[in-house]
Amino acid sequence: MDTVEEVKSRLDIVDIVGEYLPLKPAGTGSFRTNCPFHNEKTPSFFVNRSRQSWHCFGCNIGGDMISFVQQIEGLDFIDALEHLAGKAGVTLPSYNPQTSGLKKRLQALNDYAAKLMRHVLISDPEAGFARQYVANRGVDDLTADLWRLGYAPKDWHSLEKKFYAQGYTADELVKAGLASLKDSGSGIYFRFRERLMFPISDAMGHVVGFTGRILSQEKVAKYVNTPETILYKKSMILYGLDKAKTDIKREDLAIIVEGNMDAITSHQFKVTNVVASSGTALTQDQLQLLKRYTGNIAISFDSDEAGLAATLRGLDTARQMDFNIKIISYDQNLGKDPDELIRKDVKLWQEAVSRAKPIMEWIYAKAFELYPATTPDGKKKIAQFVLNECRYVAHPVERDAWIGKLAKALDVDPESLRQALKRQPAAELKTKADQAPEPAKPAKTLNTQDKTTNELEAIWLAIVLTKPQLFAKTDIHWIHPPHAKLYNLLEQSYNSPIPGQNQEPSLLQDSIAASASLEEDVKRLVDYLAILADREFQDAANDAIGLEFSNIDKRLKELSVHAQRQSLEFQMREAERLGDTEKINALLEQFSKLT
Ligand SMILES: [Zn+2]
């Protein structure tokens, strides 16, 4: 028996799942409950004791106890196995971080650093002020533990020794971004001193960097971050995603706040589908990460009026990626950010979240708050503000409805608004506050309408192989069988990385290409796609490729729906011919689910 089997044989999946979910018996050896991975009222999540498996008929996913722990804890295969092995009392073959890759080593180093600094915050006299600060912010011990808040001391001597005692080198401390080389060239100094430390984790919960907040001195930077390292790419991190992702998936909504403290406080008060953008405009990589869990985002707006237009334009990437965007707003007098609001009364935040408005609705209301609807100039400004957002409303009927509503409210002819919408290019609608640079335009645009489904599928896969960070689970129905096979492989390697292999996305391509078990047609496809990617995207900028990708993705989904409709229509005609009412109803239901 191998280790995996041994662990599984000593445990019962019903106990494992039962630790997380209330299970009710459902037939011989089966149990059911509401699925933790999607929102539902009728339980469609089943656990089967005799087969030691689980399946959700809503998500159409399932597996064994390891995959369940992976999903619910957001762990990779090895970590889930370790977790279960602990319960089963099985010792896994030892894993030695000293001998594995640099990334793993730096992750372990960061993890150790977080542990040391957590200890300093808890017990060092020097950190008394920081402890007071954390307590004053209302963060309880459990939360501080969970988010691993720490303190970077003024003098690193004792900590430095501990790193060396663990076998880490000065060079590795520099590579992890914890320290820098001295200008003199000899020796290192530590980047974070006298700061409250927030470890930053990737989506899998590995510590990849830190944010240090100064508490006392006024003259130095309020925040210091880990510089870009092989682990830490600022544009690819959403603070708290490792803790929020399961809830984001279940709620089918990601709430995005600005500050780290906003996220922490929100989680402490049980609003847990929350991540922080750490004060920057959302990047395509961050949104791509979220796309794995949901297509819906709600942004908490604490920016002042001046930042409004810029923030809104910052959402362009999210619009292009087909996110449904809602805006969370609240009375700024009650709190300037969610953290303050929650500390006043968590209900205020919960209400603000439940009141989140679709962006178009929010803009409409905001326009009338900002400008008077009684003067000609005010009407013009309201119209500009609303029409600018109207451009993003994809459906013509919905767009027209907004124009009609606006015309009525402003007492103007709807036709003049329609003309204004056509006439005014985006540039004219910019305000002074709106000076941030435009997102890069694609170097060249593929006309997705001209390509066959087969070609579009190939380009989709070619892009993902070259830019694995763009990979997102999709419900495209692949026409070409090898395309479907490759997609399934990509999805699998993302979901359950091969034990011992680094699941860093950039290695995905290599690991797939190198896999000896690849079927011949998939092997040939991967070769072809590498060439295709070279031909299509060799010189294109990252943003441009990202935009192409979302265009192609969108088009493929349209084509999928179209093809499924046709097939269902055909089946319906058949069922009608045979007078099979039950089948017709079933098909009709499937049909109505297609959007
Ligand atoms: Zn489900």
Q: Can you walk through the features of this model?
A:
The protein is of the alpha+beta class and 595 residues long. It has five domains: 3-88, Zinc finger, CHC2-typedomain (DNA Primase, Chain A, Alpha-Beta Complex), CATH 3.90.580; 97-232, DNA primase DNAg catalytic core, N-terminal domain; 241-355, Dna Topoisomerase Vi A Subunit, Chain: A, domain 2 (3-Layer(aba) Sandwich); 365-429; 442-595, DNAb Helicase, Chain A (Orthogonal Bundle), CATH 1.10.860. Helix content is 51%, strand content 11%. The protein is built from 26 helices and 16 strands. A five-stranded antiparallel beta sheet has the order 1-2-3-4-5. It has a five-stranded mixed beta sheet with strand order 13-12-14-15-16. The protein has a four-stranded antiparallel beta sheet with strand order 6-9-10-11, with helices on one face. Helix 18 packs antiparallel against helix 19 (396-410) and helix 21 packs across helix 24. The chain is globular. The two termini are 48 Å apart. The structure holds zinc ion. Zinc ion (ZN) binds at residues 35, 37-38, 45, 56, 58-59. The site of zinc ion has 7 residues, from loops.
Short note summarizing the structure:
By secondary structure, the chain is of the alpha+beta class.
